[in-house]
Amino acid sequence: MSNSIEVTETPDLAELEIDQIRKLTNAISDDRSRYLAQRIVDVLEDRTKTSVTDPLTGLWNRRRLEEYLKRFAERYPKSWLAILAFDIDDFKRVNDEHGHPGGDKVLVAVAKKLSDNFRPDDLVCRFGGDEFIVVVTGAVSKEFHGNAGESRDDFEKMVSMLAQRAREAVEKGTDVTVSVGFDINKAEYFAALEPLKITYAADVALYDAKSLGKNHVVMSVVGRS
User: Fold this and answer.
1) What pTM does this model have?
2) Where does the pLDDT of residue 6 fall: very low under 50, low under 70, confident under 90, or very high at 90 and above?
3) Structural fold of domain 62-219
4) pLDDT per residue over 128-174, tens digit each?
5) What is the Rg, in whole angstroms, of the alpha carbon atoms belonging to the chain?
6) How far is CA 6 from CA 64, 122, 137, 202, in A?
């Protein structure tokens, strides 16, 4: 049994509205009217997906990240969460040497490596530019799911392993490297932050990773609980 919820497990308001419209569409007996109604549903679904998806990489975007954190914290406030910030090293050089089409190819390649090297329930987002955010969820607490919660140390070891694995996969499978900073805390902690501050501690750790010579993984000590 998975210890974390999937992004699609709790649909947002737009998705719920589309589901209701689809049910009404299926109840229409007239073929032409049902066809036209179905076309409307298809357009609404496409717009909903577009609003939470990065068009270049196909990853979730910042809006979906914020929604996901809020929903997870509502269900499992005491569960551990990790926010990992990945930044491509010397990405400006890539654009300077290969142009923006070349840079786009690198972004797509890095996105795929990250997606392939995290668990299915982890959330991989393109946060903006050449920065990617990954949310790793811990085991949910006994109070909310019937499973014993894991220790911070165990969760930290797992997150560090996943971060190193993804970093190495990018280094071996692309022409670039990434620096990584990550932050660990309870889900309720992240949910209580303003959206612009959710990644702050992970970004500070990312800056430290860059300072070490890039292509490193560093854990934040900000807000440790």
Assistant:
1) 0.77
2) very low
3) Alpha-Beta Plaits (3.30.70)
4) 899 999 999 987 654 544 444 578 999 999 999 999 999 999 999 99
5) 20
6) 12, 8, 10, 22
Long-range contacts of 158-166 (CB under 8 A, 24+ apart): 159/82, 159/84, 159/184, 160/217, 160/219, 162/84, 162/117, 162/118, 162/119, 162/122, 162/136, 163/84, 163/217, 164/217, 165/117, 166/86, 166/113, 166/114, 166/117, 166/118, 166/134
The token duo for 113 is 């490596």
Determine the Cα–Cα distance for residues 70 and 13; give it in Å rounded to an integer: 14
Asked which of 18-22, 73-77, 159-163, 210-214 is least confident by mean pLDDT, the reply is 18-22
Active site residues: 130
What is each CA distance from 83 to 57, 136, 182, 183, in whole angstroms?
20, 7, 5, 5
Place of tokens 């049910």: 23
- For residue 184, give both structure tokens: 């660990």
For residues 188 and 73, the answer to whether their CB atoms sit within 8 Å is yes
Give the span between the Cα atoms of 64 and 53, in whole angstroms. Answer: 8
Output the DSSP codes for 104-169. HHHHHHHHHHHHHTS-TTSEEEEEETTEEEEEEE-PPPHHHHSSPPPPHHHHHHHHHHHHHHHHHH
* Cα separation values, 212 from 55, 180, 216, Å: 33, 11, 7
